[in-house]
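Archive record:
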Amino acid sequence: MTCINQAVLDPRWFRHHADVTTVARNHGIYRATGYRYLDGIVTATLVLTHFEHGKIM
C-alpha cells in the first residue's frame, strides 16, 4: 500500500465511521492490515494531540 493510499484510508474511516473490513477491502488490503494501519494512526493522533497541548506522555 502506498503512502497516499494509507493517508486516504485513515480519514475515510474517521469521517465515515465505516467498518474497517469495508475500508480495507476498498483499498485492496486484508482486514488485519487495515486494523494495523488504523491502530498506528490513532496512536499517532493521540500522541500529537498530547504534544500540542503540552502533555507529553
Residues 10 and 38 are 6 Å apart (CA to CA). Helices lie at 3-16, 20-26, 31-52. Residues 3-52 form one domain. The first helix runs from residue 3 to 16.
